[in-house]
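hey so i finally got around to running the thing on that chain from the lab meeting. sorry it took forever, my laptop kept dying and i had to restart like 3 times. anyway pasting the input first so we r on the same page abt which one it is
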Amino acid sequence: TFPLKVTKHANDLKRPFSVSALDLPRGLRLSGTQNNSPSVPLPEDKTEAPVTIEVSNNALPGYYPFVLRVIASVDGSKDAKGKPIRYAIGQPTQPITVVVLPKTIAELRVSPSEIKTDRGQTVELVVQLNRTFAHDGNLELSIPTIPGLRLTSDPVQVKPSQTEAKLKLVIDEKAAPQTYKLAVRAVAKFPGGKEISQEGRFTLSVAKPNDKK
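ok and heres what got predicted. didnt touch it at all, straight out
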């Protein structure tokens, strides 16, 4: 739902406006419209109203640009009986984009999936990204906040053209010697503060000081 504002450039536009949507794909519909009524009226004497685009469950994920058309009815010249001939004039809005969010953005595979190391070391993780949605923004890769473990860059930015990323994981001297079940988390951010995340899991074993190598 978003606001639609109409600015009148003629004083004789006193009848209610109507609004229709152009080029909406299958699965998206202007709320309030029916098959036999492709437009919805704006409240009388109003120049601003909320407009809602309904997204069905079978709508395919993607970016869908469209425009709204505001239609006004005006009287023109008179017919043979002296009655004004009514005309409809329309004005399109600026392009609007609806983003139908996917359930997944990418499949993540972390290698090596099992790591054994000592405290004070830095290990490299290779994250393979099998993208399942053409997101036009960066993916942000991070790991959970755990004392003694950190990435040299957090989050790691992955461009849309990249299918692989390398992360350097630092194991501090004070890290607890134990086995950690961890995950690299990929986050895609969308307009309106929406986020979708996926995870790729791996295991990190930090040796005790007296463990034999």
